Amino acid sequence: MDDRVFRNTMGKFATGVTVITTKVGKDVHGMTANAFMSVSLDPKLITISIDNKANMLEKIKKSGQFAVSMLGEEQQDISMHFAGQKTKEEGIEFDLVHNVPIVRDALANVVCDVYDSYVVGDHTLFIGKVFEIALRDGSPLAFYQGKYGNYRQLEYSK
């Protein structure tokens, strides 16, 4: 099977957009990702998938912590910045939760200690044990077929 066909097929699954962040020493590191999911309610666990060639891999291993910030529809520029698609003109503002950076004004922030990790193919799955969350109202930034979009709630009628 062709790699491009596989990527195009996976792009048919609409996702939200997240920025994964961690801090090593005084340096904050971030990357855009849509490979994120909830794993367990008891204990509260999530997983993220990081390419084995990504700089973020070693940063998370060193820090032992990470946060997932779920972006709102007005935060596309932040996503593009951390995806290396464009430089954000003004700086990215972070808040710190137990010394873990989170994207300010994200729809949700999930802060974790690394619980476990697994190398699977060309990626590493990090399981995070959630120890803090923050929420705000708003609409999510969506991603589908390699393009950003908006979420629109459909009307339901009986």
Beta-strand percent range: over 45%
Terminal Cα span: 43 Å
Number of domains: 1
Q: How many β-strands, per DSSP?
A: 12
- State the major sheet: 7 strands, antiparallel
CATH class: Mainly Beta
Structural write-up:
The model has no long low-confidence stretch (mean pLDDT 93). This protein has one domain (17-145): Electron Transport, Fmn-binding Protein, Chain A (Pnp Oxidase, Chain A, Roll). The radius of gyration is 16 Å and the shape is globular. The chain has 158 residues and is α+β, with helices and mostly antiparallel strands. The longest helix is centred in the middle third of the chain and has 9 residues, at 55-63. A seven-stranded antiparallel β-sheet has the order 3-2-6-9-10-5-4. The termini are far apart. 15% of the residues lie in helices and 48% in strands. A hairpin with a 2-residue loop joins strand 2 (18-24) and strand 3. The chain has three helices and twelve strands, in the order αβββββαβαββββββ.
Descriptive key words:
158 residues, alpha+beta, Pnp Oxidase, Chain A, 7-stranded antiparallel sheet, 15% helix
List the helices and strands and how they pair.
Elements: H1 3-10, E1 15-16, E2 18-24, E3 27-33, E4 36-40, E5 45-51, H2 55-63, E6 65-70, H3 76-82, E7 94-97, E8 100-103, E9 108-120, E10 123-135, E11 141-144, E12 147-150
Antiparallel strand pairs: 1-11, 2-3, 2-6, 4-5, 5-10, 6-9, 7-8, 9-10, 11-12
